[in-house]
Amino acid sequence: MDFSYSDEQQMLVDTTRRFIEQRCGFEARQKIRRNPQGYSASAWQELAELGLLALNVPEAEGGMDAGGIENMLVAQAMGAGLMLEPWLSSAVIATRAIATMGSADQRAEWLPALASAGLIAVLAHEEAGESGDPGALTTTAVAAESGWRIDGHKTMVYHAAIADLILVSARVPAESATAIGLFAIPISTPGLGLSPFATVDSQRAAELRLAGVQLPAHARLGGDVRQPLQATLDFGLAMLCADAFGALDRVLAATIEYSRSRVQFGVPIGSFQALQHRMADMLIHLEQARSMCFLAATAAGDSDRERRGKTLSAAKTLIGQAARYIGQQAVQLHGGMGMTDEMPVSHHFRRLLAFELRMGDSDQHLERYRQQLGAP
To answer: What are the CA-CA distances from residue 222 to residues 96, 157, 175 (Å)?
Structure first.
């Protein structure tokens, strides 16, 4: 596989990294994460000016219509820089959901606003005990005189509290036992309740309760969206893996640098053979994760649902294992300083911990992979 980038791709990653280093460094992030909103509105606007919110907007709506590799490069930079802004939630997952499932009027109304930072949208899909199968939802949509009535409960909806629009997945039992609908709900809609909280890595999420939420008929995106919804979730999972790889890469670099500067018994600890072996093992895990990150990005647009799902589950499992090993080793090699709030490595460790639990943990994806293989 050719891992070299085109000139346009290299320019994209260089621009993203430079912006994060200059505008959203570690000290700036420390201030942002203490903000009640949990993100920087000015940084979000600047991301729009750089075109990074338009990556997944089709060219017909004024976007870049970027592919998996371009999104992967930006996601890696976001993970390395510990960005708190809702790029994955809004600019990737929600934007692709609207672009692939929305009507012409919905795309015309929302996509330009998403690209220009005039609108933040998020997808509310996960539920307590949800197995990863979109058909296992308990949230329901029932036809009403005014359009639709939505009832249910969603968990771990990232950046819901700062969103203007929430895309809620729900079963439509009147159509079929497996039919899934996607509904756009403005944040101020009566019956929509949010319980915001901070995640372990200082991002913001919320639980959603939908009690008799009344929506007009045109609030629904598409018909039965079971397959395109899974494709959108799989693409988001690939970019989540890329975000984690960015954090992994930064963690290993920081650990190597620390081992060269930390002195014990009159010599840098990096000269101790036992620690060199541990860092070599960390590098092996990193390179395996790098390969799976590329594989996930290329498979993210695969139209074959089973092949795409198998590849992404394998990537999530292997990168999750790398995240656990490299994160734990990095903290141990930093000693007590590795868990202090002042050290970036502790925040990268938390980012990796959150990755392991988000969009299905390693055990869930390993089981998904086993089922797709048909293994007993």
So the answer is: 13, 22, 13
Tell me: the pLDDT tens digits for 171-206?
999 999 889 999 999 999 999 999 999 999 999 999
DSSP 136-195: G---EEEEETTEEEEEEEEEEEETGGG-SEEEEEEE-TTT-SS-EEEEEEETT-TTEEEE
| pLDDT tens sequence across 46-55 | 999 999 999 9
* Residue of 83, 91, 97, 88 lying closest to 116 (CA atoms): 91
Q: Which residues, at least 6 apart from 244, have a Cβ–Cβ distance to it below 8 Å?
A: 79, 289, 319, 320, 323, 351, 352, 355
Q: Which two tokens stand for residue 231?
A: 């494709």
Cα–Cα dist 69/2, whole Å: 12
Q: How far is the C-alpha of 311 from the C-alpha of 210, rounded, in Å?
A: 34
**Pick from 73, 291, 15, 105: which is nearest to 92 by CA?**
73
Query: What is d(CA 245, CA 225) in angstroms, rounded to the nearest whole number?
Result: 30
Tokens standing for residue 104: 């012409």
